[in-house]
Protein backbone atom coordinates (compact mmCIF):
# COMPACT_ATOMS: atom_id res chain seq x y z
CA UNK A 1 0.00 0.00 0.00
CA UNK A 2 1.27 3.45 -0.90
CA UNK A 3 -0.09 6.98 -0.99
CA UNK A 4 0.00 9.43 -3.87
CA UNK A 5 1.02 12.94 -2.88
CA UNK A 6 0.35 14.74 -6.16
CA UNK A 7 -1.21 14.27 -9.57
CA UNK A 8 0.03 15.43 -12.95
CA UNK A 9 -2.17 18.38 -13.94
CA UNK A 10 -0.98 18.28 -17.55
CA UNK A 11 -1.87 14.61 -17.90
CA UNK A 12 -5.33 15.21 -16.43
CA UNK A 13 -5.98 18.01 -18.92
CA UNK A 14 -4.79 15.68 -21.68
CA UNK A 15 -7.28 13.01 -20.61
CA UNK A 16 -9.96 15.69 -20.64
CA UNK A 17 -9.00 16.63 -24.21
CA UNK A 18 -8.06 20.20 -23.24
CA UNK A 19 -6.18 21.87 -26.09
CA UNK A 20 -5.92 25.44 -24.87
CA UNK A 21 -2.90 26.96 -23.16
CA UNK A 22 -4.89 28.45 -20.30
CA UNK A 23 -8.13 27.62 -18.56
CA UNK A 24 -10.53 30.06 -16.88
CA UNK A 25 -9.80 30.78 -13.20
CA UNK A 26 -13.10 29.24 -12.09
CA UNK A 27 -12.32 26.00 -13.94
CA UNK A 28 -8.79 25.98 -12.57
CA UNK A 29 -10.22 26.21 -9.07
CA UNK A 30 -12.53 23.27 -9.78
CA UNK A 31 -9.66 21.28 -11.25
CA UNK A 32 -7.43 21.87 -8.22
CA UNK A 33 -10.23 20.95 -5.84
CA UNK A 34 -10.99 17.75 -7.76
CA UNK A 35 -7.31 16.81 -7.83
CA UNK A 36 -7.15 17.14 -4.04
CA UNK A 37 -10.34 15.14 -3.58
CA UNK A 38 -8.98 12.40 -5.85
CA UNK A 39 -5.75 12.22 -3.86
CA UNK A 40 -7.69 11.88 -0.63
CA UNK A 41 -10.07 9.24 -2.02
CA UNK A 42 -7.52 7.13 -3.88
CA UNK A 43 -6.16 4.06 -2.10
CA UNK A 44 -3.28 2.91 -4.33
CA UNK A 45 -2.13 -0.67 -3.98
CA UNK A 46 -0.07 -2.95 -6.16
CA UNK A 47 2.00 -6.11 -6.23
CA UNK A 48 4.01 -8.08 -8.75
CA UNK A 49 5.09 -11.69 -9.08
CA UNK A 50 7.95 -13.19 -11.06
CA UNK A 51 7.79 -16.35 -13.14
CA UNK A 52 9.94 -18.32 -15.59
CA UNK A 53 8.65 -18.17 -19.17
CA UNK A 54 8.47 -21.23 -21.40
CA UNK A 55 7.87 -20.58 -25.09
CA UNK A 56 5.47 -23.23 -26.39
CA UNK A 57 3.53 -23.73 -29.65
CA UNK A 58 0.33 -22.93 -27.72
CA UNK A 59 1.65 -19.66 -26.29
CA UNK A 60 3.86 -18.17 -23.60
CA UNK A 61 3.61 -20.26 -20.45
CA UNK A 62 4.29 -18.51 -17.14
CA UNK A 63 5.30 -21.65 -15.29
CA UNK A 64 4.96 -20.41 -11.72
CA UNK A 65 1.15 -20.19 -11.82
CA UNK A 66 0.82 -21.72 -14.49
CA UNK A 67 -0.71 -19.20 -16.90
CA UNK A 68 -0.78 -19.63 -20.68
CA UNK A 69 -0.67 -16.43 -22.77
CA UNK A 70 -1.78 -17.22 -26.33
CA UNK A 71 -1.22 -15.04 -29.39
CA UNK A 72 1.49 -13.84 -31.73
CA UNK A 73 1.73 -10.38 -30.17
CA UNK A 74 2.54 -11.56 -26.65
CA UNK A 75 4.97 -14.08 -28.13
CA UNK A 76 6.80 -11.22 -29.84
CA UNK A 77 6.64 -9.17 -26.65
CA UNK A 78 8.32 -11.93 -24.64
CA UNK A 79 10.54 -13.26 -27.41
CA UNK A 80 13.74 -12.27 -25.60
CA UNK A 81 12.49 -13.04 -22.10
CA UNK A 82 13.16 -16.13 -20.03
CA UNK A 83 11.28 -14.59 -17.12
CA UNK A 84 8.34 -12.23 -16.76
CA UNK A 85 6.48 -10.29 -14.07
CA UNK A 86 2.73 -10.17 -13.57
CA UNK A 87 1.72 -6.78 -12.20
CA UNK A 88 -1.60 -5.85 -10.60
CA UNK A 89 -2.47 -2.34 -9.43
CA UNK A 90 -5.58 -0.49 -8.30
CA UNK A 91 -6.66 2.74 -6.58
CA UNK A 92 -9.61 1.17 -4.79
CA UNK A 93 -13.38 1.56 -4.67
CA UNK A 94 -13.90 4.80 -2.65
CA UNK A 95 -12.77 7.03 -5.50
CA UNK A 96 -15.16 5.28 -7.88
CA UNK A 97 -18.05 5.85 -5.51
CA UNK A 98 -17.05 9.51 -5.34
CA UNK A 99 -17.03 9.77 -9.13
CA UNK A 100 -20.45 8.12 -9.49
CA UNK A 101 -21.99 10.41 -6.90
CA UNK A 102 -20.45 13.54 -8.40
CA UNK A 103 -21.57 12.64 -11.92
CA UNK A 104 -25.11 12.82 -10.60
CA UNK A 105 -24.77 15.94 -8.47
CA UNK A 106 -22.16 17.94 -10.40
CA UNK A 107 -21.44 16.29 -13.77
CA UNK A 108 -18.55 18.60 -14.70
CA UNK A 109 -16.74 17.73 -11.49
CA UNK A 110 -17.52 14.06 -12.01
CA UNK A 111 -15.81 14.11 -15.41
CA UNK A 112 -12.77 15.88 -13.96
CA UNK A 113 -12.61 13.43 -11.05
CA UNK A 114 -12.71 10.54 -13.51
CA UNK A 115 -9.73 12.01 -15.38
CA UNK A 116 -7.92 12.48 -12.06
CA UNK A 117 -8.57 8.83 -11.20
CA UNK A 118 -7.25 7.72 -14.58
CA UNK A 119 -4.04 9.64 -13.95
CA UNK A 120 -3.86 8.21 -10.44
CA UNK A 121 -4.01 4.57 -11.59
CA UNK A 122 -1.44 5.24 -14.31
CA UNK A 123 0.83 6.80 -11.73
CA UNK A 124 0.31 3.81 -9.43
CA UNK A 125 1.15 1.38 -12.24
CA UNK A 126 4.22 3.47 -13.05
CA UNK A 127 5.38 3.19 -9.42
CA UNK A 128 5.00 -0.58 -9.57
CA UNK A 129 6.85 -0.73 -12.88
CA UNK A 130 9.65 1.39 -11.43
CA UNK A 131 10.14 -1.13 -8.64
CA UNK A 132 10.28 -3.99 -11.14
CA UNK A 133 12.75 -2.05 -13.28
CA UNK A 134 14.99 -1.27 -10.29
CA UNK A 135 15.00 -4.92 -9.25
CA UNK A 136 15.94 -6.06 -12.75
CA UNK A 137 18.49 -3.30 -13.24
CA UNK A 138 20.29 -4.46 -10.10
CA UNK A 139 20.64 -7.84 -11.80
CA UNK A 140 21.90 -6.31 -15.05
CA UNK A 141 18.62 -6.82 -16.89
CA UNK A 142 16.06 -4.61 -18.57
CA UNK A 143 12.28 -4.92 -18.84
CA UNK A 144 9.72 -4.59 -21.59
CA UNK A 145 6.82 -2.17 -21.47
CA UNK A 146 3.55 -3.14 -19.77
CA UNK A 147 1.41 -5.47 -21.87
CA UNK A 148 -2.17 -5.99 -20.68
CA UNK A 149 -4.82 -8.62 -21.48
CA UNK A 150 -6.99 -7.45 -24.36
CA UNK A 151 -4.08 -5.72 -26.08
CA UNK A 152 -3.28 -6.98 -29.58
CA UNK A 153 -4.38 -10.59 -29.97
CA UNK A 154 -3.95 -11.51 -26.29
CA UNK A 155 -7.53 -12.42 -25.25
CA UNK A 156 -9.19 -10.30 -22.59
CA UNK A 157 -10.34 -13.59 -21.05
CA UNK A 158 -6.77 -14.00 -19.75
CA UNK A 159 -7.67 -11.24 -17.28
CA UNK A 160 -9.77 -13.54 -15.13
CA UNK A 161 -7.11 -16.23 -14.92
CA UNK A 162 -4.38 -13.68 -14.18
CA UNK A 163 -6.34 -12.14 -11.31
CA UNK A 164 -7.36 -15.51 -9.88
CA UNK A 165 -3.94 -17.16 -10.10
CA UNK A 166 -2.15 -14.21 -8.51
CA UNK A 167 -4.67 -14.08 -5.64
CA UNK A 168 -5.35 -10.42 -6.43
CA UNK A 169 -8.79 -10.37 -4.71
CA UNK A 170 -7.20 -11.16 -1.35
CA UNK A 171 -4.04 -9.12 -1.83
CA UNK A 172 -5.46 -5.81 -3.09
CA UNK A 173 -9.23 -6.34 -3.47
CA UNK A 174 -9.02 -6.63 -7.27
CA UNK A 175 -11.52 -8.94 -8.97
CA UNK A 176 -13.12 -9.47 -12.37
CA UNK A 177 -16.77 -10.09 -13.21
CA UNK A 178 -18.38 -12.36 -15.79
CA UNK A 179 -18.11 -9.57 -18.39
CA UNK A 180 -14.34 -9.49 -17.79
CA UNK A 181 -14.55 -6.01 -16.28
CA UNK A 182 -12.28 -5.35 -13.33
CA UNK A 183 -13.53 -4.17 -9.96
CA UNK A 184 -12.38 -1.58 -9.01
CA UNK A 185 -12.52 -0.29 -12.56
CA UNK A 186 -9.52 2.02 -12.13
CA UNK A 187 -7.09 -0.89 -12.06
CA UNK A 188 -4.31 -2.28 -14.22
CA UNK A 189 -2.98 -5.76 -14.87
CA UNK A 190 0.07 -6.23 -17.05
CA UNK A 191 2.88 -8.51 -18.14
CA UNK A 192 6.47 -7.25 -18.22
CA UNK A 193 9.23 -9.36 -19.71
CA UNK A 194 12.70 -9.50 -18.20
CA UNK A 195 15.19 -8.90 -21.01
CA UNK A 196 18.93 -9.25 -21.46
CA UNK A 197 18.96 -5.88 -23.17
CA UNK A 198 20.78 -2.87 -21.71
CA UNK A 199 18.49 -0.48 -19.89
CA UNK A 200 18.60 2.04 -22.74
CA UNK A 201 17.45 -0.54 -25.25
CA UNK A 202 14.67 -1.70 -22.97
CA UNK A 203 13.53 1.90 -22.52
CA UNK A 204 13.50 2.41 -26.29
CA UNK A 205 11.34 -0.69 -26.69
CA UNK A 206 8.83 0.58 -24.13
CA UNK A 207 8.65 4.03 -25.72
CA UNK A 208 8.01 2.53 -29.16
CA UNK A 209 4.87 0.65 -28.17
CA UNK A 210 2.62 2.95 -30.23
CA UNK A 211 4.05 1.58 -33.47
CA UNK A 212 2.78 -1.89 -32.55
CA UNK A 213 -0.59 -0.88 -31.10
CA UNK A 214 -3.57 -2.42 -32.97
CA UNK A 215 -5.63 0.69 -32.14
CA UNK A 216 -3.01 3.02 -33.61
CA UNK A 217 -5.13 4.35 -36.46
CA UNK A 218 -8.19 5.01 -34.26
CA UNK A 219 -6.31 6.31 -31.21
CA UNK A 220 -7.72 9.61 -29.91
CA UNK A 221 -4.46 10.40 -28.10
CA UNK A 222 -2.41 9.95 -31.29
CA UNK A 223 -4.73 12.24 -33.22
CA UNK A 224 -4.03 14.93 -30.62
CA UNK A 225 -0.31 14.33 -31.00
CA UNK A 226 0.13 12.64 -27.62
CA UNK A 227 0.24 9.10 -26.25
CA UNK A 228 -1.69 7.07 -23.70
Describe the structure.
This protein has 228 residues and is an alpha+beta fold. The chain has 9 helices and 8 strands. Strands 3-2-1-4-8-5 form a 6-stranded antiparallel sheet. A two-stranded antiparallel sheet has the order 6-7. The longest helix is centred in the middle third of the chain and has 32 residues. The C terminus is likely disordered.
What structural keywords apply?
elongated; alpha+beta; 228 residues; two-stranded antiparallel ribbon; 9 helices; 44% helix; single chain; 6-stranded antiparallel β-sheet
Major β-sheet, in short? Answer: 6 strands, antiparallel
Quaternary arrangement of the chains shown? Answer: single chain
CA-CA gap between termini: 25 Å
Report Rg: 18 Å
In which order are the strands of the major sheet placed? Answer: 3-2-1-4-8-5
Overall shape: it is elongated
Q: Spans of 5+ residues with little confidence (pLDDT < 50)?
A: 199-205, 220-228
- How many helical stretches? 9
Would you tell me the structural class of the helices and strands?
Answer: alpha+beta
Arithmetic mean pLDDT: 89
Please give the share of residues in helix: 40-55%
Strand percentage lies at: 15-25%
Number of strands: 8
Order of helices and strands: HHEEEHEHHEHHEEEHH
Amino acid sequence: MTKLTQLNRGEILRYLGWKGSQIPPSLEETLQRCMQEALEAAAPAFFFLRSPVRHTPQGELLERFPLLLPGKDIAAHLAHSQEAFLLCATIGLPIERLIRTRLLTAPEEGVILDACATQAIEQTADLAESEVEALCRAEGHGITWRYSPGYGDLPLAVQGDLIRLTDAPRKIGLSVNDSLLMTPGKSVTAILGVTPLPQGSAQKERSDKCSRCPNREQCAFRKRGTTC
